[in-house]
């Protein structure tokens, strides 16, 4: 999975919400992106650098297989929310 594709997608996520002039959601700091996790699609704002971590790359590959690259919501991770929080606690 090409990280560049994810970065391009990160820059277009906010098209349907309150966005700045570049189309970035106002509540997402520079260098971060939005991911949706779990059955309820809980929204998390994460540093883009995390996308290069091997565990995240694995999740991104699964997401691409399950959902593809093109969808308006953002990056949807096929992962239980509890597992996601545990993963992110290791990265902080």
Please give a handful of descriptors for the protein shown:
36% helix, alpha+beta, 3-stranded mixed β-sheet, 92 residues, 3 strands
In quaternary terms, these chains amount to single chain
Widest sheet, order of strands: 2-1-3
Structural class: alpha+beta
Summarize the biggest pleated sheet: 3 strands, mixed
Radius of gyration: 12 Å
H and E string: HEEHEH
Note poorly predicted spans. Answer: 12-16
Helix content bin: 25-40%
Alpha carbon gap, first and last residue? 24 Å
Q: What do the pLDDT scores average to?
A: 78
Q: How many separate domains make up the residues?
A: 1
Tally of DSSP helical segments? 3
**Strand share of the residues?**
15-25%
What is the 3D shape? globular
How many beta-strand segments? 3
Keywords: Developmental protein, Growth regulation
Pfam family, one: Auxin_inducible
InterPro entries: SAUR_fam (IPR003676)
Family: Belongs to the ARG7 family.
Describe this structure in words.
It is built from three helices and three strands; from the N terminus they run αββαβα. The protein is of the alpha+beta class and 92 residues long. Strand 1 and strand 2 form a beta hairpin. The relative contact order is 0.19. This is SAUR family protein. Pfam families: Auxin_inducible. Belongs to the ARG7 family. Keywords: Developmental protein, Growth regulation.
Task: Provide the fold topology.
Layout: H1 3-10, E1 32-37, E2 42-47, H2 54-67, E3 75-77, H3 81-91
Short description:
This protein has 92 residues and is an alpha+beta fold.
């Amino acid at each position: 999975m090409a990280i560049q594709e994810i970065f391009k997608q990160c820059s277009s996520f906010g098209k349907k919400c309150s966005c700045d002039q570049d189309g970035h959601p106002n509540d997402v700091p520079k260098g971060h992106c939005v991911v949706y996790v779990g059955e309820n699609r809980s929204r998390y704002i994460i540093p883009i650098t995390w996308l290069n971590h091997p565990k995240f790359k694995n999740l991104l590959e699964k997401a691409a297989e399950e959902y593809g690259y093109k969808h308006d919501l953002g990056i949807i991770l096929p992962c239980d929310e509890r597992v996601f929080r545990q993963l992110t606690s290791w990265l902080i």
